[in-house]
Structure formats: structure tokens, C-alpha cells
Amino acid sequence: MVRLNWEAKLGLFLVAVSVVVYAAKFYVLGNVENTYYYVFNALGFLPLNVLLVTLILNQLLTIRSKREKLEKMNMVIGTFFSEVGTALLIRLSDRDPDLDTVRQDLIVGNDWSDEDFARVRARLETYSWSAAADRDELVALRSFLMAKRNFLLRLLENPVLLEHETFTGVLRAVFHLTDELERREDLAHTPEADLRHLTGDVNRVYGLLVAQWLDYMQYLKTNYPYLFSLAMRTNPFDETASPVVRE
After folding, report:
1. How many CB atoms sit inside 10 A of residue 174's CB?
2. Shortest CA distance to 134 belongs to which of 183, 52, 190?
3. How far apart are CA 60 and CA 172, in angstroms?
4. Sign of the four-CA dihedral 84, 75, 241, 132
5. Of 81, 141, 145, 176, which has the fewest Cβ atoms less than 10 A away?
6. Do 54 and 98 share a structural domain?
């Protein structure tokens, strides 16, 4: 016995409804030619009707899908900053001797518009991210990243991230730095040339992290004011930041 799925059952039901409607029209009005005329008119418009409905529904479904993916991606990004990103930014920004020249640009305000975010991005493109990572800091940084390695690996397993090239680039840079630090047995006595190489890897992570953090702050400000409030009270670039609400 053939079992029909719900689509087939729905199709049969709708065809049956159409037959009943046209039969009722014929028996009530008794005009066969008019019924045939109406049927052929309806059939002639059917392809256009299907086309219009398909385009509109497809567009609506595409918009909804993009919104859902955006929500999921930003949930993952938020988790990343809670577990790893914010702590990394605090460590690296504290060792940036020139940060004061752009620090105020990174104190995001409640009154910021999209134009303000765009202005800050444009200014940061010319800033040289240069955290001074000495040997002791590299040792501490290796311990921190190795402790977060399993968490970062789980992030990479999330298929949503495949469509977010910017954040994927951040994770790739973080993993590269982790691998570089892990493969060195004696970071405390690494030569100067190797120290410069590792510092370059550190600052690649630093610059990418700041850009991603700024994008995430803009997203929170627009969509989740209460999360944005906490993010600003724990702003890694604000030396007076505190999660405690004072006013």
C-alpha cells in the first residue's frame, strides 16, 4: 500500500476543493461555457501566479534565513569574546605603547551612529597595532591560549562560521599564534629574530581582534542594548571600565 506524504495529501485536497467549487458553480449557474471560460482563464494566469508567489516567498525566506544565520553567527562571536577575545584584547592593549592615540576612538558611546563606527574603522586602518610581547608575555600567552584550545576547536566545528570570512580569519590567526607558541620548547630563551617573528603573529591577532570587536559592538548597540551596556562597562580599552553600575 502506497503511503502519501503530506505534500501529496495537500495537493489532492486542493484539487478536490477546486473540483467541488467548479461543480457547484455549474449546478448553481448552469452555464457550462462560462465555467469552461473561467477555468481556462484561471489556468492561463496560473504560471504567472506561481512565478509571483515563488519570487516573493523565496525572497522572504532568503531574508529570514540571512537573519537567522546572522543571529547564530553573532551568538558564536559573543561567546568567543566572553571566553577568549576580551581577555586577549586586555592583555595586548595593555602592552601597546601607542594605544592612547586611538583609545578614545574605542570608547563606544550610546549615541554612536553607523557613521561614527565607519569613521573609527577608517581611522584604525592607518593605525599600527604594536603590542610589545616580551618573552615572559609569550610564555603567559601560550598558557592562556592552550587552556582555551578545546573551546576554540569547538567554535571551528560550527558550520555557521563558514559564511563569516572575517571572524574565520580571526580564528585562523589565533590558531596560528597558538601553534607557533606551542611548538617552541623554550620561549623564555627564544632568540631575537624569533621574538620579532612571534611579535608579528601577536600583532596580527591584535589588529584583527580589534576590528571584529568593533563590528560586534555595532551589532550589539543596534540589536541588544542590554548586552551592549555590559560590553561597554567591561570595555577592554577603557581604563575606568567596571561591570558595576554606579549611576
Report:
1. 24
2. 190
3. 34
4. positive
5. 176
6. no
Using DSSP, state whether 241 is helix, strand or coil: coil
- 49 and 90, same domain (yes or no): no
**183-196: per-residue pLDDT in tens?**
988 988 889 999 99
Cα-based torsion angle of the residue sequence 71, 115, 91, 131 in order, rounded to the nearest 10 degrees: 130
> 214 near 120, Cβ under 8 Å?
yes
Please answer whether residues 216 and 77 qualify as being in contact, where contact means their C-beta atoms are separated by less than 8 angstroms. Answer: yes
Q: Please check whether residues 198 and 170 belong to one and the same domain.
A: yes
Residue 215: band (very low, low, confident or very high) from pLDDT cuts 50, 70, 90 = very high
Q: Where are the alpha helices (DSSP H) in 157-191?
A: 165-182
For the chain, the average pLDDT equals 84
219 grid coordinates:
551589532
Cell numbers 452555464 correspond to what residue?
31
| 92, 132 contact by CB (below 8 A) | no
Length of the chain in residues, anyone? 247
Cell 610564555, residue located: 139
Together in a domain, 160 and 52:
no
Place of cell 540571512: 66
Clarify whether residues 172 and 228 are in a common domain.
Answer: yes
pLDDT tens digits, 25-62: 677 766 666 666 666 666 666 676 777 777 777 777 77
Q: Where are the alpha helices (DSSP H) in 81-191?
A: 86-93, 114-124, 135-147, 149-156, 165-182
Number of domains comprising the chain: 2
